[in-house]
Structure formats: structure tokens, C-alpha cells
Automatic annotation (TrEMBL):
Domain of life: Bacteria
Protein name per the record: DUF3857 domain-containing protein
Signal peptide start-end: 1-19
Record key words, sorted: Signal
Organism: Psychroserpens algicola
Length: 644
């Protein structure tokens, strides 16, 4: 969608023809097995080579440049898992005009070569919703073999492109060769310290990026691995054109602005607005926006397809059905009718793409928000669970292109205005029956921000089974054999008109599993009452920067009544204090638990917070110390001992 918006008119020009590089590029005529280290031999598979070549070429008769892409890979497979990972090859056919050549071979540990049978290449339509693929199985693969694949395709001309140079297995050498010839171009690499070097191709200086010993990208907790992979983005223009980044952004701002800022409010939209605010007056911009958001998300359905009608305003207002693109027009109409100033934000899901304001690539322009500058709050039109407030967690921390009504634009990092937007408050009153058969927990909970949004969404939009599972989470997750004696909710309606109204839960549960008989004493697993906690006991080196889902805070007060005739031991296990100190000396994350005794009560307080969602990987040990502190408390136990 944005790709079409941002595509600029091409000037028809020609250049002198030259020989395409892909025609001379080839694999080794007499391949041999590569030497690998003992460490690499312990991996299921190792990438010996991953090379991608993008080549733009123009001939005398061409109106626009031609684009060729070549992929050359060599993978060493050391065990059955490695074989399974590499012995089926998928070649994406998106934007492919012609398959120029496909070849593959296997070299086993004894040097025997098995070539691909071209008859085995099949075309498969829409594989797992990823589009069409050429697919073939590699023959002759056994342990300690190497699988080599080399193919070239001609693609539809596109001024923009990107390529990922990192995978989920180690690569000894990863390369990207960019051939633009006489055409103007730009290229940029992300998340690597390696630099492009110039190499001669057809007598011209072209750009080659070589990265050695690329680590496997692994899916670590508190990270965005898909968006963190080493990647290259590039731009290439028809001869005579040299479009600046500012020109690209101006074009997007004008195209988006013209579509989403309404000059006039249509009759049907005005009728809707009259209904939205019926009987209400003196509304703030926030209340107007919240009423609009509730109305749209109650009455309209967003459909995920490319039907043009779903972007037509008249059709949408009449049929209450829209694309995620078209629904922006509805918000624009309603906000204008109520005289609410707003800006359009174009950005990306940070778990998939990191938005770069300095380099225009349409692929990172995937998500739309509406920003209310007077309120410093966002509307997320395609997030049915969200209401006017902070940005959705999958957007938080990414940059965005902000477009005001005058179609000017600026870039800003999308951050939370309210540092305590998402938090949980829990108060527990815990008693043990006289014969130490069971524990009873009376609990009051308040969930704010994203916690509240998630809770309301699950309880209003999920199946009965999912609702049952979520109520289990809300009433002592991880406590075995618990019995829910009472349960009630407040502020559970998904439509809200007040800012960050907490979702509340009151419950009473009982459990026998929290107590363990120890002769004349009883062990009480008090830590389990805070629910299952995340753990970071990873021993391998951290690969990804640390990114939490969103900043959040927890405040607990737990009152434990000491049974008559018993004393308490082991309370020191309840004292835990771990912090993450930022560069300015501020505590950015903390888990602190402590207790005090007052008569026959033990009063435990817990404060845990994460003031940002981004933490330095260089201080990973400090971060995981805080995370693991919560897990350590979850394992804490105290001893009730009979007094003589």
C-alpha cells in the first residue's frame, strides 16, 4: 500500500548496454568439502557461504532498468537436524518475472557430487500465506555433507529493496554485492561493524559487504530477533534521477495527508457524529476522541483483503466494513466533525522492523496511528482492544513519521508520556486453618494500561476456554489444586471513556499444595502466591539487545496471619534487593521485597519496576539479576514451627 503511495514517476531514459554480471558468476567447477573447526562440527549446520547479488541493468531498448537477483549458499550439515533444516529449498516468486537459472548440488564427506534433477523443481502456490515458491528437495544428503544452491531470477523493477544477511544458524561468510552500474543509488547496512568496499564489476566500482563469522540469531526472551538481524537496504533510480530522502518523505506526507485529512465532512459521517455525542456537551478533545474510538470499534469491522471498496469512504460508512487503510478515513471524518486536531503517524511493528528516518524503504511503513497533540495520546485504529492512550506495545520505541494537517512532517521516537501507564497493584490477605490443611488467600487486584487492555480484550473477545484459562491466571497462576471460592470483576467493559481506568479483580481461593508437613512444623510456599515468574538463567552469551514488551510496575502487599501456637523461621528469604542502574545513576529497574512482623502478622511488601522497555545488552547481567529476583522470590518458603 505505502509502496504504491510512495512510488514516484519514472523518467524514461536509456544507458549504454553492458554485460550482466550474473551471466559470468558461477560456483567452483571442482568443489571440495570445506574445513571446519571442532566447535562448528558440533553445530547441526553451518553456513559456509551466504551471498546475495542485486544487479540493476539498462539496455538501449529498455524503458526502465532491469533487476536481477542471485543467491548463492553453501551449508554444511552435521546431523539429522541440520539435514532437515536444509534439504528442502524454497525460492520466493514474489515480484519474479523470469527464473533465469536454478541449480543445486550435494557434496558428501567423500567428495561425491550429486546434482539437482531439474524435473524435481515444483511451483507451490501461497505457502503458509507467504506467497508462491519454487520448491525442490536436495538429493544425496547425508551427515557431514555440503549443500550448495545457486539461482538467479529477474524481478520487476523496484527502486527499493532489502536483504537479510543473518539466519538462525552460524554463517562463516555472508556477502552482499550491489551492482548499480551508471545508475544513481544508495545503500545502507544495519547492525554490523563491517563496511562496504568497492570492487570492480564491468569496469565500474560496485559495493560489496563482507561479514565473517555471523552468529546465529536466536529467539531470546525480552528481544526482537526478527527485527535485529543484520540487513541491507538499498535504493536505485533510473538514469538521470537522484531522488533525495527528503523528497521521498515529502511524497509520503502529501499522499497520506491527502487521503486522511478530510476537506469536508460527508453527510453520513455527520449523522454518526451527532449520534456519538448525543446528550453530551462541553467535551474535552480526549472525551471526543474516546467516544469516536468506542463507536468505530463497536460498529465497524476491519477486513484483511485488497478489495478496493474497503478503502472507499462512502462504502465504508454505509456498510460498516473497511480495510485497515480505509478506517483511517472514518476517523478523519469524525475527528474533523468534532474539531479535534490530530496527526497521522506512519510507523512499523518494532518486533518486525526498526523504522529508520534517515533511509526511505516502503517496507517499514506498515502501521498507522492517530496522534492527538493536545492530549499527547494515540488512537490505534486497527487494534480493537486498545482505546485512546499510549501507543500499542508493538509500536512503542520505534520512530514514526508524524504528518500534521498542513502535510508538513517530522520524525519522533514513539514513547510513553505516562511512565506509570502499565502497572499492577495487588493486596493479599493470607490465613491458614487451624489444622494446617489449607491456605486461604483473599486478593484485591488492579490492572492499569496495557495490562488492563489485555484483560478486557481476553474477557470480551475470547472463547469460553480462553476466558477460563485467563481467570486461572488472575487467581494465583501456578498454584496447584486451588479452589476458587469467589471471583468478581469491575471495569471489565472494553469500551471506556475515562483515561486508564483500572480493571479490577477480587477473589478468594484456597489451596492445600502451598503447605508441606515437616514433623511438628509446616513449610509454607509463600513465594508461589505472586504467580509464575519469568526466568533468565541463560548461560550462553546474549545476542540481542534487551527489549521488554513495555515499561511496567508491580506493587504488592501480602499479609500472612501467623497461626496461634506457632513461631516463624526463614523470613530472611523474603528480603531480596536487585537493581539495574542506568548511566545517569538512576534506577531503571528494580525488584525489592521485604517484610516486617506486627503482632501475629507478617507484612510483605514488593516493589518491582521497569521504567523503560529498552536496556543495554552490555549490562545484561544486571537486567537478568532483576528478572531472576522475582523468580527467586517465587521459590521462597517460610517455616511455621510449633511453640512449646
Amino acid at each position: 500500500m505505502i509502496k504504491n503511495i510512495a512510488f514516484l514517476c519514472l523518467l524514461v531514459t536509456t544507458t549504454s548496454s553492458f554485460a550482466q554480471y550474473y551471466k559470468t558468476y558461477d560456483w567452483a567447477e571442482n568443489p571440495t568439502i570445506h574445513e571446519i573447526s571442532a566447535e562448528d562440527a558440533n553445530e547441526s549446520s553451518i553456513g559456509i557461504l551466504k551471498k546475495h547479488i542485486v544487479e540493476y541493468a539498462s539496455g538501449d531498448s529498455d524503458q526502465i532498468p532491469r533487476r536481477f537477483e542471485t543467491e548463492h549458499t553453501i551449508a554444511r550439515v552435521n546431523d539429522d537436524k541440520g539435514i532437515a533444516q536444509h534439504n528442502t529449498v524454497y525460492i520466493p516468486m514474489y515480484d519474479v518475472k523470469t527464473v533465469v537459472d536454478i541449480k543445486a548440488r550435494t557434496i558428501n564427506s567423500k567428495g561425491k557430487i550429486t546434482l539437482l534433477n531439474q524435473d524435481n523443481i515444483k511451483e507451490v502456490k501461497n505457502v503458509d500465506e507467504y506467497g508462491d515458491f519454487k520448491i525442490f528437495a536436495i538429493e544425496g544428503v547425508e551427515k557431514n555433507s555440503e549443500i550448495e544452491v545457486l539461482y538467479t531470477v529477474e524481478k520487476e523493477f523496484d527502486m527499493y529493496g532489502s536483504e537479510t544477511l543473518q539466519t538462525d544458524y552460524k554463517i562463516k561468510k555472508s556477502q552482499f554485492l550491489f551492482i548499480a552500474g551508471a545508475l544513481n543509488s544508495n545503500i545502507k547496512a544495519y547492525r554490523t561493524t563491517s563496511n562496504f568496499e568497492y570492487v570492480k564489476v564491468n569496469g565500474k566500482d560496485e559495493k560489496l559487504l563482507t561479514i565473517t563469522d555471523v552468529p546465529a540469531m536466536i529467539d531470546e526472551e525480552y528481544s526482537t530477533p526478527k527485527a535485529n538481524k543484520i540487513a541491507v537496504v538499498y535504493q536505485c533510480f533510473p538514469n538521470g534521477q537522484n531522488i533525495t530522502q527528503q523528497m521521498f518523505w515529502n511524497n509520503v506526507a502529501n499522499n497520506v495527508g491527502n487521503r486522511f485529512f478530510a476537506e469536508n465532512v460527508v453527510k453520513k459521517a455527520q449523522t454518526d457524529v451527532d449520534k456519538i455525542i448525543e446528550g453530551q456537551s462541553d467535551l474535552s478533545d480526549f472525551k471526543k476522541a474516546m467516544l469516536i474510538d468506542n463507536f468505530v470499534k463497536t460498529n465497524f469491522t476491519i477486513v484483511k483483503n485488497n478489495n478496493e471498496e474497503l478503502s472507499d469512504l462512502d462504502y465504508i460508512l454505509e456498510n460498516r466494513s473497511s480495510s485497515d487503510f480505509g478506517i483511517m478515513k472514518v476517523y478523519g471524518q469524525y475527528l474533523k466533525a468534532l474539531d479535534v486536531d490530530y496527526e497521522i503517524v506512519v510507523t512499523a511493528n518494532r518486533f518486525l522492523n526498526k523504522f529508520d528516518p534517515e533511509f526511505f524503504i516502503p517496507g517499514m511503513l506498515r502501521d498507522f496511528l492517530i496522534y492527538l497533540p493536545s492530549e499527547k495520546k494515540y488512537i490505534a485504529p486497527d487494534r480493537i482492544e486498545a482505546r485512546v492512550g499510549e501507543a500499542p506495545f508493538n509500536i512503542l520505541g520505534n520512530y514514526g513519521l508524524f504528518i500534521p494537517s498542513d502535510f508538513d512532517y517530522y520524525f519522533s521516537k514513539i514513547v510513553e508520556e505516562d511512565p506509570d501507564f502499565s502497572r499492577i497493584k495487588r493486596d493479599m490477605d493470607i490465613s491458614i486453618d487451624d489444622d494446617f490443611e489449607k491456605v486461604t488467600i483473599i486478593e484485591d487486584q488492579e490492572y492499569y494500561g496495557h495490562w488492563a487492555e489485555t484483560s478486557r480484550a481476553v474477557l470480551n473477545l475470547s472463547s469460553e476456554e480462553n476466558i477460563k484459562e485467563y481467570k486461572d491466571y488472575l487467581t494465583g497462576a501456578g498454584i496447584e489444586d486451588k479452589e476458587i471460592l469467589s471471583y468478581s470483576e469491575a471495569n471489565a467493559d472494553i469500551n471506556q471513556v475515562n483515561y486508564n481506568l483500572p480493571f479490577k479483580v477480587k477473589s478468594t481461593i484456597s489451596s492445600e499444595s502451598l503447605l508441606e508437613d515437616a514433623g511438628d512444623s509446616y513449610i509454607f510456599q509463600v513465594g508461589l502466591v505472586i504467580g509464575t515468574q519469568s526466568e533468565l538463567y541463560q548461560e550462553t552469551e546474549r545476542i540481542n539487545p534487551i527489549e521488554m514488551t513495555y515499561p511496567n510496575r508491580y506493587n504488592y502487599e501480602i499479609i500472612v496471619h501467623i497461626p496461634e501456637g506457632y513461631s516463624v523461621e526463614g523470613l530472611s528469604s523474603l528480603n531480596i534487593n536487585k537493581s539495574y542502574i542506568g548511566r545517569t545513576g538512576e534506577k531503571l529497574a528494580k525488584f525489592e521485597s521485604s517484610y516486617k512482623k506486627e503482632g501475629d502478622k507478617i507484612i510483605i511488601t514488593i516493589e518491582e519496576f521497569y521504567k523503560t522497555h529498552e536496556f543495554s545488552v552490555s549490562k545484561y547481567e544486571d537486567f537478568r539479576g532483576v528478572i531472576n529476583a522475582a523468580s527467586d522470590f517465587n521459590k521462597a518458603a517460610i517455616l511455621f514451627k510449633a511453640t512449646e
